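User: Thanks for the earlier help. One more: Secernin-1. Can you show the sequence and predicted structure together?

Assistant: Of course, both are below.
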Amino acid sequence: RMAAAPPSYCFVAFPPCSKDGLVVFGKNSARPRDEVQEVVYFAAAAHDPGSKVECTYIEIEQVPKTHAIVLSRPSWLWGAEMGANEHGVCVANEAVVTREPASESEALLGMDLVRLGLERGATAKEALDVIVALLEEHGQGGNYYEDGSSCHTFQSAFLIVDRNEAWILETSGKYWAAEKITEGVKCICNQLSLTTKIDAEHPELRNYVRSQGWWNGDSDFNFSEVFSLAHDHLACCSGRESLEKRGGDVSAQAMIDVLRDKDSGVCVDSESFLTTASIVSVLPQDPSFPCVHYFTGTPDPSRSIFKPFIFVDDVKLVPKVQSPSFGNDDPAKKIPRFQEKPDRRHELYKAHEWARSLLENDQDKGQKLMRIMLDLEIQGLEAMEDILT
């Protein structure tokens, strides 16, 4: 079991810090270095009464209707690290460690809750309500990694954003607290960050921590101080200052620049972990404009291109960013799990590996290729900016 959660980062910027009345959301997903992340789309759907949905480890009750969603997810699981729905809701997950050990029993993963929140919530607050209700009913637990030799378990934190507001939701077991954000810049990472400003919480939260002897009921209730391991509740603001320094000029490009920054640690590239995928979403506060979501679908945003996605009536699936399916033969579904590790690389991932080797082995050709790709990214950003303005 790993001692610490991987250092992923999520950001949101609201006016007046962001440009042109836009809400800008971004996340780097730090995962095991060799894990493949895919980009997948699921259309809105109606479901029969009494039907079930099979999540990563457990089956739960389905709802009558699910929204259209686009996800960036580790390709072996059902849920997602991050994604968006047709109503302009974005959700991202962070693995966190608290003083309460995470359960190894298979339940809902934090990534499952991301997808369920997006499928069932038409606003950020609705998505939050969905997640905490499912947490109460089914709990969270199970292996976060495709690893048959060890069970890596974590608690979950979420950044949930729509055109008007964001919620930071932090959990420990079934207990949770949330803070509402409507302006400025906010960053969350793999440490608890909620303190005394709590706008919603589990109804039994304070009674529970009092019964555990973690809070005496006399001092101000500080969520991260109560639930964090010693000295582990410091604010993780890597990248936040970079966004704040831009004043009212935070744009998609500014968020991309922050996600690409290795010196700050936001872009993770270590022996164990790598930023395996990234997302930037631009949510106009004017509902007559569409939301635009940019996905890399490949590792290391400093060497990846952000590609735009907009929800339209007839979304075409892109097989090149989808991993092969192994059906019921998938080692992630067989018990005991993860006894083998199949090749989950999709075509875009393989092309990215080729480009990376070119960058490393032929600097001139590699730099030329990178310039061409960045020019294409800039064209995409400019075209989307024209749509939004």
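User: Great, one quick takeaway?

Assistant: Helices lie at 110-120, 124-138, 205-211, 223-227, 240-244, 252-259, 347-361, 363-388.
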